[in-house]
Amino acid sequence: MQTINEIKEEIYPIFEPIIGTIRLKTYFSYYAVFKDGLMIALYQNGATYLRIAKKDIEYIRQYPKTCILCDEKIGIQSRKFHYIPQVLIDDTPKFSSLLFGIIEELRTEKYKISQKRATQIRNLPNMNLKLERMLKKIGIHSIHDFTQEGYMSTFIKLILQGFDVTEDLLFKLNGALNHQYIYTFTDQQKRELMQEANQALYNSGLRKRFNAL
After folding, report:
1. Sign of CA dihedral 51, 54, 55, 60
2. pLDDT by residue, tens only, the chain of 213 residues
3. Which of 46, 44, 57 minimizes the C-alpha distance to 102?
4. How far is CA 88 from CA 45, 48, 85, 153, 181, in A?
5. Distances from the Cα of 106 to the Cαs of 22, 66, 117, in angstroms?
6. For position 147, which CATH number holds?
7. Which domain holds residue 148?
């Protein structure tokens, strides 16, 4: 059985002269190759399997001896990787293009995901997918919408739409916009929020709901 240093001596020369420092991590029976936290390749028993960017799929399929990795232990994830013959690895311009292509694609995907997360209500304190869907039903689709509406107005709108709201929901909405988890709320803070809600309900022509004494 090869030592990790022996594995490194095989893998590092393939990638580091082109893309700089990489990191290895075991992945099932493979060694996964990471660049800046992105998994770009798998390696096993002298065989290199590279993740291929969408723009390069047609090209790589036409190249002799390349093929999709199919390993039931990894499942569908394995199909994102293609076996890269040594002759293509030795063709530095072509192999470099494939490497930089997948790194650019994965970085773009990671950025899009982070941007999407930044707008999702479910990622705020106290919130989840169920509450996010509830707010969407009253026209609040993003953190920006939620911030513009405000926690109390959102609470009132949910009542007007017939949702069975509770004091816990009031606390969650307030905490979400103030970046505070409800388990850190003081009794005084809760009483003040319920008093505020009662006044807001009264001003909206609705009955008061909370005993906030």
Report:
1. positive
2. 778 889 999 999 999 999 999 999 999 999 999 999 999 999 999 999 999 999 999 989 888 889 999 998 888 778 899 999 999 999 999 999 999 999 999 999 999 999 988 899 999 999 999 999 999 999 999 999 999 999 999 999 999 999 989 999 999 999 999 999 999 999 999 999 999 999 999 999 999 888 866
3. 57
4. 18, 11, 6, 61, 54
5. 15, 21, 16
6. 1.10.150.20
7. 121-204
For residue 101, tell me if it sits in a domain.
Answer: yes
Distance CA 139, CA 132 (A): 11
Residue with tokens 């470099």: 96
Whole-prediction pTM? 0.74
Token pair belonging to 24: 């290895």
Please report which helix (H) or strand (E) contains residue 97, including its range: helix 92-117
- Residue at 159 is within a domain: yes
The secondary structure element, H or E, covering residue 23 is strand 23-27
CATH of the domain at 69: 3.30.1460.30
Number of other residues whose CB lies within 10 A of the CB of residue 169: 20
Q: Is 164 in a helix, a strand, or coil?
A: coil
In a shared domain, residues 111 and 136 = no
- The answer to whether position 11 is within a domain reads yes
Residue 210 lies in a domain: no
Name the amino acid, one letter, at 64.
P
Structure-block tokens of residue 125: 């304190």
Identify the domain boundary among 99, 118, 137: 118
